[in-house]
Structures
1.
Amino acid sequence: MASITRSYEGELKQKSTGRKTLGGFGWYEALTWAMLVTFLLTFLFIFIAPTDATLKYSQRIFYFHLPANIMCFAAFFVYFVGGIGYWRTRKRVWDRVMISGLELGLFFACIGIASGSIWAKYAWNTFWTWDPRLTTVTIMMVVYIAGLMLRNATEDPARKAALSAAFGIIGFIDVPIVYFSTRWFPRGLHPVIFLNGNNGPDALGLEGFMVVTLLTSMLAMTLFFVWVLVQRLRLEKMRDDVAELAYSLQDDNI
Amino acid sequence: MLLELSLKFLDTTPPLPSQTQVDNGFGFVVAAYAAVWILIFGYIYSLNRRQAKIRRDIEVLKEEEAERKEQLRLSQTSQKPPAVSK
């Protein structure tokens, strides 16, 4: 119990000095600064990138829409890995990974849907259509939201984690379906990005500085994903430590 | 296959956008980025709030632990036999 108290004394002291370190290293600070710098560069590049001939100025939404959706898949992969880890070991650390991956996956999916819907209003004259890509994304969201609701409805921690693991493993089946939906159902409205028979930048329909802008945006979004994942994992760790501290204090009372 | 068949019966092709809409892409870009940043800051704010709540809980538990230790120290002091003078 004393060691838990000391670790939180250390954490509170770090907060008051404004420096965040983990294990004596400043990597989290470096990550934060790198993320902010790449976001600034991304905004600069978005303004100076060439304008698309077909979609005109609206094409710039792509520089956030695509990275957000890729991070959504990455987060659900983290959830999937957490599910496998918990299934094999039954350790709480994997449950923390699961809930973090699930929440971040839904968050990035919302970003993708919001940006995509606004872009769709411009390009397709409608905020929503039952295009195969959008339909499979909806199914994926329903599955993961159901998993989150079921998790929140369960009181027992072990059962909660076991249910989450099941959803994480089975629900991940839908992620490649979402990705390949534009190829399996080519009559949809959503364009095929990557693996469309073209090579290099032509696979993206981009040229020149557009590719640089996209890569910078991808880097910024990846750094942001890692940053917010660390924050979310830290939140769960703090919850566990508080519960353990409260339990040990209760134990002393008995 | 089933999805493709069912899509045949649904009108998924909306009417083409007007020329004004095509020319006015800038407003949509601003709206999309505003939505993205509202979501990002909203989530970060939510995370910070939850962390702040847990820090408050930690403070309460620490105070409780300190009180417990003080009580234990006082009870141990009162039970200690008086020192014998030489």
Note: Chain B touches chain A at residues 3-4, 7, 10, 12-17, 21-23, 25-26, 28-29, 31-33, 35-36, 39-40, 43-44, 47, 50-51, 54-55, 57-58, 61-62, 64-65, 68 (CB under 8 Å).
2.
Amino acid sequence: MKPARVVAGWSLAGLAAFALLPWYLTEAGSGLGQALAGKPWLWAGALALAVALVAARLAAGRLQGWLLAAAALAGLGALLGAGFAVERTGIGAGGALVLLALLMLLGAGIARLGFFRGDVFVAGAVVLCGALLALFVALPVGKALAGAFVDDAGAFAPAALVERLASERVWGLGCLAGSVRCGVAWNTVFLALLTATGTTVLGTLLALMAERGSRRLARPLNILALLPIITPPFVVGLGLILLFGRAGLVNQFLEWAFGIPPTRWFYGLFGIWLAQMFAFTPIAFMIVRGVVQGVGPSLEEAAQTLGASRWQTFRTVTLPLIKPGLANAFLVGFIESIADFGNPIVVGGQYNVLSTDIFFAIVGAQFDQGRAASLALLLTGFALVVFFLQQRVLGRAQYTTVSGKGDAGLALPLPDGVRRACQGIALPWLAFTVVVYVFAFIGGFVQTWGRDYTPTLAHLRTAFDLQWGEHGLVWAGTAWNSLFTTLKLAAIAAPLCAALGLTISWLLARTQFAGQRVFEFAALLAFAIPGTVLGVSYVLAFNVPPFELTGTGLVIVLCFVFRNLPVGVRAGSATFKQLDRHLDEASTMLRAPTSTTLRRVVLPLLKPALVAALVYSFVRSMTTVSAVIFLVNAENELATTYIIGRVGNGDYGVALAYCTVLIVLMSAATAAIQFLVGERKLGRRST
Amino acid sequence: MPRSPLPAACLLALAALPAAHAQDGGQLNVLCSVQAEWCNMIQTVFTRTTGIKVNMSLKGSGEALAQIIAERANPKTDVWFGGTGDPHLQAAEQDLTLEYRSATLPQLHAWAQQQAAQSRHRTVGIYSGPLGFGYNTELVAKKKMPVPKTWADLLQPVYKGEIQVANPASSGTAYTMVATLVQLMGEDKAFDYMKKLHANISQYTRSGTGPIKAVARGEATVSISFVHDGPGEAMQGFPVATVTPAEGTGAEIGSMSIVKGARNLENAKKFYEWALTPQAQQFGAAARQFQLPSNKATPVDARVPDFKKIRFIDYDYAKYGASAERRRLIAKWEKEVNSLPR
């Protein structure tokens, strides 16, 4: 589409929305009607759009650019300024569309001024993604973290931050000198390093097994390795407690066989680490698998032709080529670990980490929001440090292996040592996974878990009863409502999250603009702070006009999208590092517009990343707890909040039966996504 | 141009979908901090008898207070029902809840009226339950331990590593214990006691109901908990029994408040009045929750502990419910007790 037509199109769409759609969420009346009825600042939006419409008719050039950018900026400034300052009602369809149109016009104007190589599409995408990140990540998180600089009376006091953070409880190193414990900051970092290392190693081993090991194992590996992701939180924790807790099987066996009295050795660092290994290895597996798939076999064949042994080839060619995958997996593992709340709370014992401390500063008996914000700030700082370290490690090296030429090479079988290591570690781990899950499933179908093991379907019936009434089918179970809501919201969120995440990763990989690092970090930020802080920050930011969204399903969808965005971005970034940029350039040289290049060339090559992003965001949306606990209400109850309520009552049977149903559903959804997206075809031989 | 930003465009357009805000005039938003079954029961019955639609969210009292604080600029909640009394007092102290005097007030037990008076009538007591010990009857028999009857009993070496209590920094239950001990023994002696008790504690759990669940499942032998949490576990078939300490004990006062700036104020008042009637207060026992209801006329279930047989201290809710005192005691506990080796 020609840029002039694009500009005119957005201007007209914006004007139509202004004239026809209701401007506010809860009040009738279009922007036009409201502007006439005493809200004169709304004219600014219409005026800006009209100026843009005129500008669209000008010759492409700097004058047009200035006009577009200035009009759009003025319009946005007036609408948002008035919105934050005087509006009493949240904006609705009309307002949102006008703002969107102005953003796109701003992008077009900037492109016309010569930025982004004059590419209107790229400029529009950058402006839009930037605006979304600013509104749904930077604004809420900033609002929440600002609490760190405020003292109890609400006055600005940086000293309060220092006082809250510079305590023995945060930084103490007592454990090195034989005291009971170290500060929570050290605990958090130590645990995160262990978890990130562990999940990266294990995820890589599994990925190598699945891609380069035995073919028979690839499919069960894919399914089993993904199981922990589709599991609602605390199922693994509870399963592990039943195995290793004081009254658990292992301890009972030890007492019976060797007379060792049962103790609580499992609770603490080891327990959390094990639970986190379960929870986060799959994501490492998915990231590394995509990268291993992309490694061009002809490079390995070349190494062998030059006389390298299989081990040498693996060490000097394969491993360095999957470095982006390893670095990304490590980064995600580290951040997941520091933000994880569910596992430390279930099996943490006396081992405190920042996320649990933050949670209790918010909802615990202290109700110290300032302390929570200060600790969250610290956590964000850790994420920032790892993020920059990762950038340094990857540096400017080239990892491109997917180029325009089909690769006729054959994937190299793993060296024997590596294969044995994969099997020796990965297979027992998979067996262990099966055991823990069998335990969890059994819990849903016996009378009382840990007490009365009579098989029953009563729990399932409580949750998912179906009856034939006078008017046909009656959804009599108590869980149907939450199940349908969750499915609906997660299904809306997943494609949005994947699209936005991959778009951002494409912008980061293929374009250059100032502030790119800030952009990248903002996309990661929602992930790095604990869910509870994100949830509270969403309430703080979106409970007041102009973006008044609390109480709607939409705010939950947005929370899902931006919470899970980083996985899409990381998966996309790792894949882009492998794709030869000449592929894009060839398409551009054949006069395809950027949007066509994206659709016909880039997207098909991104399929593994797309699957990872879709699956992960869908599944995580269905299993998130802490981020949405303040956002759910009676109309939008979610599966996880229902389950948490049951667990709170000690009603493990119903909770676990529900989890079983969720796991089955999510497996089906995962398979469906994989089937619909399909595998990418890289022009490689298989035999 | 519009192709790839399309998903994002949908996102903004979605922002536009008017979320069915049906304002029929007949609804009420309730934050409910008691057990789920109880919440559902009052929701159903109140809706059936008045025709007012109740939107009920279930949240623990800490989460409920955090939500009300976060929403303070534009409250979405009308009534906060149940949950331990301290967070309600904090909400009153921070001016988050509305001053309201019910006509039913004289019909309530003295402790419920006191709770209202101390908060300048921004909250009111709806039930009460004593603090005590829960123990696993099978484990006690197996290990041949005596059943603890007094606070002093808990210091016996035989209980080393067998006792669980929640962490006062995170749990109102545990804070009630700290405040009770301070009032019972005096501050210095209470902290000496807790330091000695520390040696016998296996874990300070996060949630107040955690210890008795651990006791039920054999992860611990003795818990310090509210005794009304015991029967629910026992009815699931777990070997749990409870006692109250002979030297005297404190109690929680489950409370109810109307949020300041409530959008459905008239309905909120109707609900508030209804919740104080004897009919409404029976639903606690019906949902297997055995606290003592605050209305004197409410029939009391046989499984509710007999308050006449329990020795209560004269708990000063105003002093120990205030934020400053609470923060001081918790910080002192963190510093002097929780940091000790075992």
Note: Chain B touches chain A through 78 residues (CB under 8 Å).
